Structures are given as C-alpha cells and as structure tokens.
Amino acid sequence: MTVGDATVLAVSGMTFESRIAAGPGVTTLHGYRDRALAEVLTTALHSHRGVISIGVAGGLAPGLSPGAVIVASSVQDGDVVLPCDAAWHDALRASLPDALSGPIAGMDAAVTTVAAKAALHRAHGALAVDMESHIAARAARDRGLPFAALRIVIDPAERPVPPLAVAGMAADGSTDIGAIVRGLLKAPWELGGLIRLGRDAAAAKAALARARRMAGAALGAP
C-alpha cells in the first residue's frame, strides 16, 4: 500500500496495475483478494473520500478485444447489484470517449473457461469480470463513499485463460515466474496459450496506461 495524503483509494489486484494507477491525489492498494481485501479495506478507507477499482479484467461480452476500456455503471456481486457513483462515472466517460459503459461482475475466483464466461454474461449482462471490484464496491457502500470502476479487457470472452496463468498469480500481486516455469515443465502444451495471453496482456497494459493518462483528474472522486 502506498501511503500519503491522497483522498482517493485505487484498488487493484496486480502490482503493475497499482503502479499505473498511482498519481497525484491517489493512494493505491494491491495484492489482496477475497477476505483479506475486505479486511484491509475496513481500515484503509478512513482517510479517503472515494474508492475506484482499476486494472485489467476478463472479457465476458462477445467481441471485446484485449485493450477494450470499460467504465462500469455497476458491479454484480452475486445476486446483488452495486451501483457506481453516477457523477464519477460520467466524468470518466467524458475523459475516455472511446470507453464502453455497462455492468461488470466481481468474483472471488478467476473465471477462466469460455463456458463459464458465457454463463456469467448471460446471467447478468456483465461486460467483464475481475476479482476486486465487488469487494471494493461493497466496502465503499458500507462506508458511504462514492465508488467507480475502470477496467481493461485482457482475455476476450472467446478464449480460455491458461491454467498456468492463474497459477502464476502470486498472492502479493506479482507474477510468480517460478510457478509458471515449473508448470510448463509438467504441461509444455500450455506454452502457446501463455504466449498468446502475454500478447493480450501487453495490449491491455498499454491501454490501461493510456486510459490512466487520459482520465487525469477524473480519476478522483467528484
């Protein structure tokens, strides 16, 4: 966690997402998921006036390419819909005219198969899914703080996520290269999928950095 006198808390899963999100007026938090994220947010929000979930996400809607930018209108948390702050949403959309607007979903576990992505999209109409937005939105609601989400598609709905990519996600938000190498020794056929995901990740990372620059002051709660 980057500590400072910022007033907006940017919540991400991975280290690179947090680095991109950082900037004037923004405190970053990454490397926590599920219950651990919920617990740290109960104390992390005392000095902030807004929460934004920012980073990459799995594509759920057909046709969304890696790098597609989404400004969420709401977050699906199980059967509960958590709305995003309307003014903040509109400010982000004004700064990001090419971004899509629509619901996203939050899940405690990675959604990796094409069938699971399709089922989640059919159930809720969500454009994308990540593992932090629902927890951050829930915490913001409980604290009475405005919430927004800016997410970039990394893996399209039409392609599965290689199991080794999930295994390579370290608990602290970094990439566990050792786990990936060990996994490839056991399952070398996954190499092609990892290479393709690497290209998708590069496109998503570049799009996230560009969206962060374009959003500028709009990343802060109105």
Automatic annotation (TrEMBL):
One of its GO terms (molecular function) is methylthioadenosine nucleosidase activity. Gene3D superfamilies: Nucleoside phosphorylase domain. SUPFAM superfamilies: Purine and uridine phosphorylases. Transmembrane segments: none annotated. It comes from the Bacteria. Residues 31-185 form the Nucleoside phosphorylase domain. InterPro entries: Hopanoid-assoc_phosphoryl_HpnG (IPR017831), Nucleoside_phosphorylase_d (IPR000845), Nucleoside_phosphorylase_sf (IPR035994). One of its GO terms (cellular component) is cytosol. It holds the Pfam family PNP_UDP_1. CDD domains: adenosylhopane_nucleosidase_HpnG-like. GO terms for biological process: L-methionine salvage from S-adenosylmethionine; nucleoside metabolic process. PANTHER family: 5'-METHYLTHIOADENOSINE/S-ADENOSYLHOMOCYSTEINE NUCLEOSIDASE, 5'-METHYLTHIOADENOSINE_S-ADENOSYLHOMOCYSTEINE NUCLEOSIDASE. This is Hopanoid-associated phosphorylase. It comes from Cupriavidus plantarum.
